Every structure is written in structure tokens, then in C-alpha cells.
Amino acid sequence: MDANELRALQAPLKKQYREQPETARTLTRAEAVLDVDRVACRLRSWSGETTAGLHPATGGDGSLACSAEMLLEALVACAGVTMSAVAIAMGVKLRGGRVIAEGHWDACGTLGVDREAPVGLTDIALIFELDTDADAATAQRLVEMTERFCVIYQTLRAPPRLSVAYRIAAPS
Questions:
Q1: Read out DSSP for 79-127?
Q2: Domains (ranges, CATH) in the chain?
Q3: How far apart are CA 142 and CA 2, in angstroms?
């Protein structure tokens, strides 16, 4: 895809969102079904079903997906797609590359071993390895624009309000 094709693809959407900003607000949803016998849950995605379970640091055997890794996968996927689109819009020729996310979490917090230990990822590094002839200033601008427009990066950078609710399911 080139810049003109990308602009043509997005132009009607941008026009609609300028004229009717309320139509730009998009619901995103995920759902998991508990697999209580395995201390796991199954979630459906566009490509099929994934089963997430305990990480080996918390008693898992490593055969099930790790939720923290899935979060990082969402980050690299979003950053990669965003970077590709931004590169096209900027006219930067990318021959390829990789997007890598690394994060750390403390199993002592997750397992309740240490009440002072944090629960959750405490730091995330996002690394871009770019195969391009672009100069350093252009590559830096590409990364900055990717940061600016990447939904997952910006969500993690400025966390949204979170809420939790529950319902008791009717007996089956």
C-alpha cells in the first residue's frame, strides 16, 4: 500500500468523524470462559481460541498462554500496525523490522508472598528494530508518531478508568 491508497482508504472515515464525531467512538470487547478445572480460561479471537493459564512462575507448566505476554503481544501488534501506517503516510520506506516488548512482574506480589511486592507489570520496554535507509532524525520521528497514534501504547501510558462488576449466573 502506498500513501495515496492509505489516504483514499481513510478519507471517508476521517470525513465522517469530523462531521459526526460521536461515530468515532468504537466499542472493543473481549470475553473469556472460565475453565475452573485447569485454573485457566478460554478466549475467542478472530483467529480461533486461546487458553490462558498460570505462568510457570505461579505454578503453571508453560503450556498455556500467559496473560502478561498477551498484553505485550497486543502492544507489539498495535505498535507494528501503527508504525507501518505512519511510515506509509510519512513516505518512509521500511523493508521490514521487528517490534519487541519486554516487561517485568514480581511473582511474590501475584502469589501473595509479599504484601509490599507489586502485582502487575512494573516496567515495559518497547524496542523497534527497523530495516530502512531513513536517516536517524526521520526514524526518530517515525517512532514518535507511532507512540502518539498507537492505541495500546497510549492506553498503557495513561491508563483508563477501570471498574469491576459481577453477576451471579442463573443455575443451568
A1: HHHHHHHHHHHHT--EEEEEEEEEEE--HHHHTTS-TTS--S--EEEEE
A2: 67-172 (3.30.300.20)
A3: 16
Distances (CA, A) of 163 to 22, 29, 74, 134: 23, 14, 21, 43
3-class DSSP assignment, residue 69: helix
Instruction: List the alpha helices (DSSP H) in 98-135.
Output: 107-110
| Residue 68: C-alpha distances to residues 20, 57, 72, 96, 135 (Å) | 36, 12, 6, 26, 34
Q: Residues 52, 69: contact at Cβ < 8 Å?
A: no
Q: How many C-beta atoms surround the C-beta of residue 9 within 10 A?
A: 11
CA separation for the pair 58, 41 (Å, rounded): 16
DSSP state at residue 99: E
pLDDT digit string, tens, across residues 122-142 = 999 999 999 999 999 999 999
Element (H, E) at 32: strand 32-35
**133 vs 138: CA distance, rounded Å:** 10
pTM: 0.91
